[in-house]
Design goal:
The structure is a homodimer. Chain A has about 450 residues and is of the alpha+beta class. Chain A has helices at about 1-25, 35-50, 115-140, 160-165, 170, 215, 225-235, 255-265, 270-275, 290-295, 335-350, 375-385, 400-410, 435-455; strands at about 55-60, 65-70, 80-85, 105-110, 110-115, 145-150, 175-180, 190-195, 195-205, 210-215, 300-305, 315, 320-330, 355-365, 365-370, 390-395, 415, 430-435. Chain A has a six-stranded mixed β-sheet with strand order 1-2-6-3-7-17, with helices on both faces. Chain A is elongated. The model of chain A has no long low-confidence stretch (mean pLDDT about 95). Chains A and B meet through strand 10, helix 6, helix 7, helix 10 and strand 11 of A and strand 10, helix 6, helix 7, helix 10 and strand 11 of B.
């Protein structure tokens, strides 16, 4: 391995030049005027994969932007890893807030500034370079490697989703390696092993068949806002436990090890509260902030509207009111099942003198990569070697739908080897990527190929 | 009295012609292009008061439309009645829905159709004609009479309100006679003796200092929508009693007589529910629908808003949410006091980890004319004589701010001798007024002058 690591060190300046070249391509997936740039970016990725040594490289056209596929299957009997990333980037508005042009990569201090630097060109490029270092050093890889790089992550991954559905055999792997999340902190090697799922619902309450004058009718008719409020209040108890019957039934409990891992992290609840302007953090009784955010299911109203919402007064009893209510789910909750439980409970607590409509707007499965999976352990060892520190394990409160699809369709263990930082302005002006993490990422990736080949 | 009633019968055709002339004046107070019509209507009223025999008639110019004042104080030692009405009318849109031109009075069956027919020209004109009948028959009135007729009732009465404040002595009276409400039903003589008041509040809950991603933060931060909903749910108990401490303290209980009066009215709770498309009426335990609407205080959310309210899904925990919450008040509740109790209670039930702002938007006092007041009794006897039926007593759920001002500033008993019907399309196309009620109204008014002079 020493030779590979040395190769990375001595070729680093060239990697940086190539990354800059990649970042100069304005591959904004959502803007039609950039469709040619999308093709250019896909061709750049394909060329770099070919240069690296991947022996089968193919660009698949889709109804949207192209997918880049590559494989090297020269290690029969050894595990197969699928490496995922995306070459598309977010738009750059508001352009006037950029301190350097978004598609003219600029190095300041430890960081390289450009749209896509951390999300996801810089993070994804790491793996192409680790594969190259291996090939250039030993002429082969220690295990089988596939790449699938898409150009539509920022607009919903719909073409990759259907490609995945139709090409399970092509993409089949034991693990899916993804660098599109964050490190817990600067220089802290981190594996994200859990993502929450989602069940997003809408509840509409209809009372009278028209808006009524609150003087003439107030006191004798069901008010849909009051009733909706009462129903929302019944969704949690005083300990912030969700009261929907059966809601927690499938929740995988945090293990002792996980709770200890979270507890060991440098985290200040005070600083967390201060950063978002709240007096104190609140939530489900019996759990820490990190546990609540990463590993416990939640319920939040995301929106509510009914009646008169302008300036001043209008004495109306509205005909209807509605709320968006979503639940973040954790392994092994099933969004389809939760939708049903939610709907049933809402119907049960709704008074019989109003009409209540419950609609499912959107759902997604949670993901959990077992901490004791060989791929997870190999990744942790790899990052520890590269960073020279013990790898920490965290979860994330949000969802990454494509990760769920990989895990479910391919039965592959997701390995989220995030190399970004939450502070790197992804989706905002002055996006940047820490170049120390870029170099340590290439080494982490190389170590992972070695570690995972040995299991 | 027989002579007065005979006079009314034999002059009825002329009264009708005069009413038509009045209705032809397009005195729409809210439209600036009708300001000359407002002057014309005021002059018409003043002329008719002079013709009737009132010996001091004056038009007071205001910052808006003129006020018409008249007095005859030739009965020293006798009570004084102030008669109030308004000569302004609502706009006529949508004009295409009128079956006859709004300012060309048209008689069809028992009704006269025109804008202002029932609200309030027809109802108000009744009293000018009863005074005329008296003067023409006996050469004098049996008690002292004042008139104050405004041209801004449909736009908030602000100039009358300040005139009243500055002219208490001029307007001083023992009773204020007003015909600007409704009969309970066709041909049913009705006195409205109670109006509800209002305290209209706004509550804003602020949690985090910005909108947050519900994946990243959900579970550990206070959600202002959920908290607002929980607070609203705490404003009433399961019997729909309002839980604000001290809220019912000053509520004047319905007397046995009142409850019996209401019970005796022809009223179908089923039909009431059907008419507004609800399965059943609901409200405070232990009270009938009419009691709840007319004589019990209520609390209703008039509007609520927070977070994402568009189509589809946005996984946001909003920074804030707010609701408009109003309470209808009954005698002897004081809106200023209720505002304070509401604010105190809200602050008390608000969790200490959010910021809650309570604002008073608008308030108004309730009114109750004592059933045993001489003016109330005289009015009931008068209507019974004219209609040939027992007068019923009802209340109304809404507010009429100017009535409160009269009652409070002049310490005069309000007598709401409504002659309209809720079905007469006031404020809508094809407004009309039942001419039987017009004639019976003139007689009721004349009987009232007689009855009230004897007390």
């Amino acid at each position: 391995m020493k030779e590979v690591i040395d190769f990375i060190d001595s070729n680093y300046e060239r990697y940086l030049d190539e990354l800059k070249e990649f970042l100069r391509i304005p591959s904004i997936s959502t803007l039609p005027e950039h469709s040619r740039d999308m093709q250019t970016a896909a061709e750049f990725v394909a060329a770099k994969l070919k240069d690296a040594g991947m022996n089968k490289v193919e660009i698949f056209q889709t109804e949207g932007h192209p997918l880049v596929y590559a494989e090297w299957l020269g290690a029969p009997g050894k595990p197969t890893v699928l490496i995922y990333g995306h070459y598309d980037v977010q738009p750059v508005d508001p352009i006037e807030l950029w301190e350097s042009p978004p598609f003219e990569p600029t190095i300041k201090g430890d960081n390289i500034y450009a749209r896509g630097a951390t999300d996801d060109k810089g993070q994804m490029f790491v793996h192409i370079k680790s594969v190259e270092a291996y090939f250039k050093t030993y002429g082969s890889l220690p295990l089988n490697v596939k790449f699938i790089i898409e150009g539509e992550e920022e607009i919903g991954s719909s073409n990759l989703t259907s490609f995945l559905k139709n090409n399970v055999e092509l993409l089949k792997a034991d693990a899916v390696l993804i660098s599109d999340t964050s490190l817990y902190d600067v220089g802290v090697p981190t594996i994200t092993y859990g993502l929450r799922g989602l069940a997003y619902m809408e509840v509409e309450v209809v009372g009278p068949n028209r808006d009524l004058h609150s003087g003439t009718y107030g006191g004798a008719v069901p008010n849909p806002i009051n009733i909706l409020a009462e129903m929302i209040a019944k969704l949690k108890d005083k300990d912030a436990k969700i009261t929907i019957t059966g809601f927690y039934k499938d929740v995988l409990k945090l293990t002792k090890e996980e709770r200890q891992n979270f507890k060991a992290l440098k985290f200040s609840e005070k600083e967390f509260a201060r950063s978002i302007g709240i007096k104190k953090s609140v939530g489900e009784k019996g759990y820490s902030v990190l546990e609540r955010i990463w590993a416990r299911p939640t319920l939040d109203c995301n929106g509510i509207v009914g009646g008169f919402t302008g300036q001043g007064a209008k004495t109306v009893i509205p005909s209807k009111a509605s709320a968006k209510i979503s639940m973040r789910l954790v392994p092994n909750q099933d969004p389809k099942k939760i939708e049903k439980l939610f709907t049933k409970y809402i119907k049960q607590i709704a008074p019989d003198y109003v009409n209540v409509k419950v609609t499912s707007i959107h759902g997604g499965y949670p993901v959990l990569a077992p901490l004791d999976h060989k791929a997870t352990k190999a990744a942790a060892r790899a990052m520890s070697k590269a960073f020279g520190k013990k790898t920490i394990f965290m979860r994330e409160g949000g969802s990454i739908p494509i990760v769920v699809d990989f895990a479910n369709r391919l039965k592959a263990c997701p390995v989220l080897m995030g190399l970004g930082l939450d502070s790197e302005n992804l989706h905002s002006p002055n996006e940047h990527f820490n170049l120390n993490h870029f170099k340590l990422g290439i080494k982490s990736s190389a170590y992972f190929l070695d570690e995972f080949s040995r299991v």
